[in-house]
Amino acid sequence: MLQPKKRRRFGRPHIRLAEELRTPGVDMRSQEGRRYFTIVTELLAEFGDGDPSRIRELAGLKFSLEQIQAEVIGGSQRAREDLVRVSNLIARREGELRTRKAAKAEPARPLHERLMAPRPAAASVAPRPVPLAGGPFAVTVEQAG
Fold first, then answer.
1. Which residue segment(s) compose the domain that 92 sits in?
2. Domain total for the chain?
3. Interatomic CA distance for residues 23 and 33, integer angstroms
């Protein structure tokens, strides 16, 4: 299970992130690194130990979203457009993770149960008119099927 590893050092709790969830080049001691760690732990609590690359990607997107929100507050028009794009992307990625989590939680039915399950009734087809004679005043008879 991919959970952050906790250890105490010099009286202050230091939390190490599992290697699978680390992003290269991010110093986990910086303010940004600690915020990234917080986002990852929240995602782990919500989605469990799914695919580490997907959790890392979603954490990076959420971190970027927070930075873009700060730019929007500063008045950047371009940041407003980026905010919409990134928030929609985050919603799609979270939806994918929720779908994967639900698929794992739901046990698959055995093959014989799926084959023997009753099929839904076919929708009835409305009858089609069939012309008996040509011309504008053709007489039609209802024909099924």
1. 5-113
2. 1
3. 9
